[in-house]
Amino acid sequence: MERLGERIGSGLVVGDLIVLTGPLGAGKTTLTRGIADGLGVRGPVQSPTFVIARTHPSLVGGAPLVHADAYRLDSALELDDLDVDVDGSVTIVEWGRGKVDGLRDTWFDIEIERPVGSVEGSAEDLDLDAPRVVTITRVAA
């Protein structure tokens, strides 16, 4: 996931918005770490679940990265209330599907699917290195 993120990050430009969707443990924050590396921003990149949004400044004179978690937000208005600079940064919103309307005219929707535990096993038994399916779609409002 990190290598994929690096490849994605190296092609992003200021103003790009990415919405990450997937179940717990799918790799949303891991993908974001790779994107951060590709952008050349200061880390560490950690899940913003409790702070809702973190800004990572560029170390190479490029766009900063805003990493947000919309899990506890109810609407695009609440996300907009965070006063995130979507025009002057690359913005990643975990759990943001249906909550970024109005922030940009277009964005990348990245869905990560991972296998879930079988009936015989539990989610804790899931191999963390299990293959993921990543679908990237360009969305227009």
Written description of the protein model:
It is a single chain. With 141 residues, the protein is α/β, with parallel strands linked by helices. The protein is 18% helix and 25% strand. The chain has a 6-stranded mixed beta sheet with strand order 2-3-4-1-5-6, covered by helices on one side. Strand 3, helix 3 and strand 4 form a beta-alpha-beta unit. The mean pLDDT is 86.
Percentage of helical residues?
10-25%
Average of pLDDT: 86
What's the helix-strand series? HEHEEHEEE
Question: Order of strands in the sheet with the most strands?
Answer: 2-3-4-1-5-6
Shape: globular
Number of strands: 6
Question: What's the gist of this structure?
Answer:
The protein is 18% helix and 25% strand. By secondary structure, it is an alpha/beta fold.
What key attributes describe this structure?
141 residues, 25% strand, six-stranded mixed sheet, alpha/beta, 6 strands, globular
How is the secondary structure organized here?
Blueprint: H1 2-9, E1 17-21, H2 28-39, E2 53-56, E3 65-69, H3 76-80, E4 90-94, E5 106-113, E6 133-140
Parallel strand pairs: 1-4, 1-5, 3-4
Antiparallel strand pairs: 2-3, 5-6
